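Final report, closing paragraph on structural work. Over the funding period we assembled a curated collection of sequence-structure pairs, and we close with a single example.
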Amino acid sequence: MDLPGVPSALLVELRGAAHQAGSQRLALVGGAVRDGLLHRQHGWAWSGVPDLDLVVEGKAAAVAEALLQRCGAERLNHCVEHGAFGTVALTLDGQSLDLATARGEVYPAPGHNPQVRAGTLLADLVRRDFTINAMAWDLMSGELIDPHGGRQHLVSKQLVFLHQRS
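Its predicted structure, as stored:
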């Protein structure tokens, strides 16, 4: 899957950094995947990608460190780690990226911050709200991962809750 407006050089660096950090899976998730499919399937106008959400099976901080080593501070000019949540917000070549360790989470009470534990990409997708937001594009294999039928729901223009807590 190609994403208009996302430079292929950026994807090459992300793949290389994930490999360098020892991660077997790095995936684009969320709105960019959904909107890219809508663009391709329905010819909807592409409004661009303000930020990219990525999930890594491994440590997000290790991938961010590998990106810094590969690209240098001139290209990766913003990097903020949120260790309690296993996430890193960064800017690479002017593109905002949110890099998250694949995770499961438990909320001890409504309105509280989650208790986060490392997990798999599939476990990470289960915690999302709608099937159309629970798809991923695996940047390592090039495969669309759609365990909940989100692509078909896009085709039929349906909005389907993923679970009771959605």
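The helical segments are 8-20, 31-42, 60-75, 121-126, 150-155. The two ends are 27 Å apart (CA to CA). We thank the funder for supporting this effort.
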